[in-house]
Amino acid sequence: MSRTKRFCKQILAHGINWFLAALLSLALILTACSPSEQTPVINYVFDDLGRLVAINGTPQRIISLAPSNTEILFALGLGDKVVGVTDWCNYPPEAQNKTKVGGYANPDIEKIVALNPDLILAGYGNPIEVVYTLAGLGLTVFGIKTTDLDDLLNDIRRIGEITDKEVEAQALTSEMENRIQAVTNVTSELEERPKVFYLISQDLWTAGSGTFIHELIEKAGGVNICQNITGYTMISIEEVIARDPEIIITSSWPGVYEWAMNSTELEVTAARQSGSVYTCDDDLVQRPGPRLVEGLEWFAHFIHPEIFGEPGGS
Questions:
Q1: Which of 48, 197, 223, 272 is the most buried (most CB within 10 A)?
Q2: Range(s) for CATH 3.40.50.1980 in the chain?
Q3: Largest CA distance in the chain
Q4: Three-state DSSP class for 45?
Q5: Tens digits of residue pLDDT in 1-20
């Protein structure tokens, strides 16, 4: 082959290589700028109401419609992304500085829409009509309906999943599991399990099976005297006396503890005879949030003070 022909072939080969390189560079640029990379990933997750909810990217503006959800969000480090809470959201203290959107049963729809949320966490006590109204307005509503401690741990992980806080959720639930196990490892071996009556209000509202309070009593090493009753209900003073609780735990509602301590009707109970009447912050035992574990520890202390000290004590 002549020197001229070889030179022409080299020029042609280099030209093809440059052309291919240019095509490859253009393809990389187009890929990097493609809409699929710029559009947030949409996750489809079933909530506790059985609804398939589309979570568009990582939520930046969150509204909580239940105090328990608010506590979970702050515990996961999402307080700065919470833009609205209910009138009842009082913990942590920072939550009280957030815009109020109404109560459980009557949230202000217009105010919620005006806050332009990209995620609304609904909870137990929110009417289903409210959930569907908000969803019908194009808002993303995720329903949480926690039934017991195990379900609570799962719901915390799910909230972590949809808010890009999976690591924090795993750390939180692991800590909670360890604290629960520290109690149940002891109480599961106990043969003596005192009868416990939980008093919500002076008109004798109490908690039966299927409630967090019932589960806490059982895990703390007691027997709920209303275990044959389902849910929250009223009980007669005659029934309380007949079941003769050895321990009475009241809510922190005004006047309830004082009534339990001074009521002449309860004088005949074993709890009053031994002075085993206590009061507990109801937010710790009636809200399905991270502090429910602290409620369990207090119940264990009240029911078995010979074994468990006060939570946080030495």
A1: 197
A2: 42-172, 192-303
A3: 121
A4: strand
A5: 544 444 344 444 444 444 44
Bridge partners for 45 per DSSP = 53
pTM of the model: 0.84
Using alpha carbons, select from 84, 167, 95, 90 the residue that is nearest to residue 122. Answer: 84
Task: Sheet with 119-122: list strands edge to edge.
Answer: 99-100, 82-85, 62-64, 119-122, 141-143
Fold of 42-172: Rossmann fold (3.40.50)
Question: For residues 3 and 286, what is the distance between their CA atoms, to the nearest angstrom?
Answer: 92
Q: Please report, for residues 18, 19, 20, 114, 152, the alpha-carbon distance to residue 27 in angstroms, rounded to integers and kept in the order given.
A: 14, 12, 11, 42, 48
Structure tokens at 191: 């043969």
Distances (CA, A) of 252 to 26, 198, 257, 283, 296: 68, 11, 7, 9, 16
- Please report, as a single letter, which amino acid is at residue 70: T
- Per residue in 206-232, pLDDT (tens digit) is 999 999 999 999 999 999 999 999 999
- CA dist 296 and 298 (Å) reads 5
Thinking of the domain 192-303, which architecture would CATH place it in? 3-Layer(aba) Sandwich (3.40)
State phi, psi for 66 to the nearest 5 degrees.
Answer: -155, 140
Q: Which residues neighbour 60 within 8 Å (Cβ) at sequence distance 6 or greater?
A: 81, 118
Q: Say if strands 277-279 and 247-250 run parallel, antiparallel, or are unpaired.
A: parallel
